[in-house]
Amino acid sequence: MNDGRRHERIELTDSIAQIVSKLAEDHPGALAVLTNAMQTAPQVDPQDIFQGMGVMLSLDTQAIYGEDIWTLYQVVCEEDIVRFLGMMRACQMGVLIDQDLKLAIRGRTMIDTKSIMRAIVHKLPSFKWSDDEEDGVTADLE
User: Fold this and answer.
1) Which of 5, 52, 88, 127 could form a disulfide with 38 if both were Cys (CB 3.0 to 4.6 A apart)?
2) Nearest CA among 55, 63, 56, 53 for reference residue 98
3) Any idea where the domains of the chain sit in the sequence?
4) Could you give the C-alpha distances from 65 to 18, 20, 74, 114, 125, in angstroms and in order?
5) Residue 93, Cα to own-chain centre: how many angstroms?
6) Longest dimension (CA), the chain
7) How far is CA 112 from its chain centroid?
8) pLDDT single digits (tens) 4-56
9) For 9-16, which contacts have Cβ atoms below 8 Å and span 24 or more sequence positions?
């Protein structure tokens, strides 16, 4: 019975492989994105205490799974893993409202990901992102 509370899928006893499997829902694109996110997150967002797990926990908390993960990466973030990580961090920090992100995933609204990324870099100077169109905001991957 659904009592209105969210039910996250990740459990404390899950291995990383189980977490990725639960989130990806057998969607190959989502699996690739999650694997890439886990590997990239520690370099891109060194202030995330959970490192690669931070994005996994955020996706689970927001109930973004399977095809929605792929759509977020492919359409909303224009196949940019750093931007994908940034959107999840933006939700964690309250820069982006979770519901707006979900509406963007479903194609019901557009979000200005570059402006959101600029806000993230402003709040987290160690977040590694480069805005090719803006000379003032740079954070290159090593």
Assistant:
1) 52
2) 63
3) 16-123
4) 14, 10, 14, 24, 29
5) 12
6) 53
7) 15
8) 445 678 888 999 999 999 999 999 999 999 999 999 999 999 988 888 888 99
9) 9/60, 9/65, 10/56, 10/57, 10/60, 16/53
